[in-house]
Write a structure and sequence with these properties.
Number of strands: 0
Distance between the termini: 24 Å
Low-confidence stretches: 213-219
Strand content: under 5%
Number of helices: 9
Largest sheet: none
């Protein structure tokens, strides 16, 4: 059975479609339940493909982030879980040689940093005081994931960029810069997030499958 035909990846795709439909219809709590199934299904697929443990950990932390963000007054806890996921993503790609490539071509890192600073500045005045210390740190982690993933693999790099955009929309909605309750906002956030974790996971698994086991940068 090929990786693409894995029942776990097929289930991820089906749940993603169902979730987006439920999200558009505003069907609660089914939309929350389907959302929390996404990352675990992808994590099981990665594990079944023999993917790196750090990628499974990152997806498990994404699940916790999704879960906590669905619970009232736990937004910061959800952010912390996603921050942990990005630490795992960054570590994963650094172990695969991202820093060496970035030293030779730092343009993407600079561009992402400029975008993140502009986004934080735009949001800043509308953020709740409790979020202000966390947002710059989290933005830096998003930039880290986007930058190091692109340095290692184009598909994963697109996933890292989409993660940055998805969470940027969340930040704008939290700051009142866009309508957080609009159907289009929720659909945009989740469509980008689903694509992000899918591309990150499949990019890493595909790359590792094509990389000889003796390559020094291949690590769990």
């Amino acid at each position: 059975m090929t990786a693409v035909r894995s029942p776990w990846l097929v289930a991820f795709g089906l749940v993603a479609v169902v979730h987006l439909a439920l999200n558009a219809a505003g069907t609660t709590p089914l939309d929350s339940i389907s959302k929390c199934l996404l990352a675990p299904l992808l994590a099981v697929w990665v594990a079944r493909q023999g993917g790196p443990r750090l990628l499974v950990v990152a997806l498990a932390l994404c699940f916790l982030g999704d879960l906590f963000l669905e619970i009232d007054d736990l937004f910061v806890v959800g952010m912390a879980a996603f921050a942990g996921a990005h630490v795992a993503f960054v570590t994963l790609f650094v172990r695969r040689g991202a820093l060496d490539r970035l030293r030779r071509r730092p343009q993407a890192a600079v561009a992402y940093a400029v975008v993140a600073v502009a986004m934080v500045a735009w949001c800043w005045g509308g953020l709740e005081p409790a979020l202000k210390p966390a947002i710059p740190v989290y933005a830096a982690l998003l930039v880290g994931t986007a930058t190091v993933s692109l340095a290692v693999d184009v598909r994963a790099g697109v996933g890292g960029a989409l993660f940055l955009v998805s969470d940027g929309i969340i930040a704008l909605s939290q700051a009142g810069r866009i309508d957080a309750d609009a159907t289009a906002t929720g659909l945009a956030i989740m469509t980008l997030y689903i694509a992000a974790i899918l591309l990150l996971a499949t990019g890493v698994v595909r790359r590792d499958a094509r990389t000889p086991a003796t390559t020094p940068h291949r690590a769990p």
